[in-house]
Amino acid sequence: MPAHMLQLSSSYTTTTTTIRAPPKGSPQNEGEKLENHPFYSEEDIRPEMKDDIYDPSYQDAEGPRPKFEFVWRNIILMCLLHLGALYGIILVPTCKFYTWLWAYVYYLISGLGITAGAHRLWSHRTYKAWLPLWLFLIFANTMAFQNDVYEWARDHRAHHKFSETDADPHNSRRGFFFSHVGWLLVRKHPAVKEKGATLNLSDLKAEKLVMFQRRYYKPAVLLICFILPTLVPWFYWGETFLNSLCVATFLRYAVVLNATWLVNSAAHLYGYRPYDKNINSRENILVSLGAVGEGFHNYHHTFPYDYSASEYRWHINFTTFFIDCMAVLGLAYD
Ligand SMILES: [Zn+2]
Ligand SMILES: [Zn+2]
């Protein structure tokens, strides 16, 4: 195990851990000291944020898991959405060019709302944003409709801290289907609720914008995830209503959902583990392609405080490119 990993492992045992900037560049040699790395810093880069660091002291309780309790409303809505999206695939060739472009741009922006927003900004606090970027990300996040930022970040911090246990909302030890979408179709395991309630979410509660989104989430989602993307192609360039609905809305939404879910399923089951082979998350290039840069998942679980979520900056990582552009514009920092 590389020296910097040993350093991190030993830090799990204390709650007053100092998180240091992750080492970049070539992989560490055995025995090389973290302190000697050119990018090593004594500075604690996220003094306020510790609840996304893996806690190996938590283990599953003995005995069988409780039976699944199906949430039929979610099952029916997911089936309808995916049927609409499948029909949308058939309709793609009949769409106008601007409808393809619209659906693609909507996919990219809503993807960023998850990756640069809910994930790297709000769940992990890997960078800070000024108001215009904040507003853009909360809007983009609402376009993506994957639960509001508060709920997304709570589930995600639990996923990191209690990874691959019953307290992990999409525990990949329960199989591909469960970690992909199944977890959204059944009631949460009691351990998810119990351990989730112990997480420190005070930073999110203190953010007025996050709480504002939570308050008006349902009407906002209806408007900008469903109504707006359907009406614009139909109204502005004379696309048929069915094409607008099934391609720009259902198909685009289903693609963003599945791309995100693949990070929880495929990137926890298939791929290499060059940074920490004791955890399940893996490096998966295909997932990175779909999820705009979130497939370097063994790295990400090892160094959750890196805004790039990858050792390789812009390589298959549109989200890092986007955050770097925002930094150049002075809208993202730290
Ligand atoms: Zn994460
Ligand atoms: Zn993960």
UniProtKB/TrEMBL annotation:
<dbReference type="GO" id="GO:0005506">
    <property type="term" value="F:iron ion binding"/>
</dbReference>
<dbReference type="GO" id="GO:0004768">
    <property type="term" value="F:stearoyl-CoA 9-desaturase activity"/>
</dbReference>
<feature type="transmembrane region" description="Helical">
    <location>
        <begin position="129"/>
        <end position="147"/>
    </location>
</feature>
<dbReference type="GO" id="GO:1903966">
    <property type="term" value="P:monounsaturated fatty acid biosynthetic process"/>
</dbReference>
<dbReference type="GO" id="GO:0006636">
    <property type="term" value="P:unsaturated fatty acid biosynthetic process"/>
</dbReference>
<dbReference type="GO" id="GO:0032896">
    <property type="term" value="F:palmitoyl-CoA 9-desaturase activity"/>
</dbReference>
<comment type="similarity">
    <text>Belongs to the fatty acid desaturase type 1 family.</text>
</comment>
<feature type="transmembrane region" description="Helical">
    <location>
        <begin position="70"/>
        <end position="92"/>
    </location>
</feature>
<dbReference type="InterPro" id="IPR001522">
    <property type="entry name" value="FADS-1_CS"/>
</dbReference>
<feature type="transmembrane region" description="Helical">
    <location>
        <begin position="104"/>
        <end position="123"/>
    </location>
</feature>
<keyword id="KW-0560">Oxidoreductase</keyword>
<keyword id="KW-0443">Lipid metabolism</keyword>
<dbReference type="GO" id="GO:0005789">
    <property type="term" value="C:endoplasmic reticulum membrane"/>
</dbReference>
<keyword id="KW-0256">Endoplasmic reticulum</keyword>
<keyword id="KW-0472">Membrane</keyword>
<keyword id="KW-0812">Transmembrane</keyword>
<feature type="transmembrane region" description="Helical">
    <location>
        <begin position="250"/>
        <end position="272"/>
    </location>
</feature>
<keyword id="KW-1133">Transmembrane helix</keyword>
<feature type="region of interest" description="Disordered">
    <location>
        <begin position="1"/>
        <end position="37"/>
    </location>
</feature>
<dbReference type="GO" id="GO:0070542">
    <property type="term" value="P:response to fatty acid"/>
</dbReference>
<keyword id="KW-0276">Fatty acid metabolism</keyword>
<dbReference type="InterPro" id="IPR015876">
    <property type="entry name" value="Acyl-CoA_DS"/>
</dbReference>
<keyword id="KW-0444">Lipid biosynthesis</keyword>
<feature type="transmembrane region" description="Helical">
    <location>
        <begin position="314"/>
        <end position="333"/>
    </location>
</feature>
<protein>
    <recommendedName>
        <fullName>stearoyl-CoA 9-desaturase</fullName>
        <ecNumber>1.14.19.1</ecNumber>
    </recommendedName>
</protein>
<keyword id="KW-0408">Iron</keyword>
<keyword id="KW-0479">Metal-binding</keyword>
<feature type="transmembrane region" description="Helical">
    <location>
        <begin position="220"/>
        <end position="238"/>
    </location>
</feature>
<keyword id="KW-0275">Fatty acid biosynthesis</keyword>
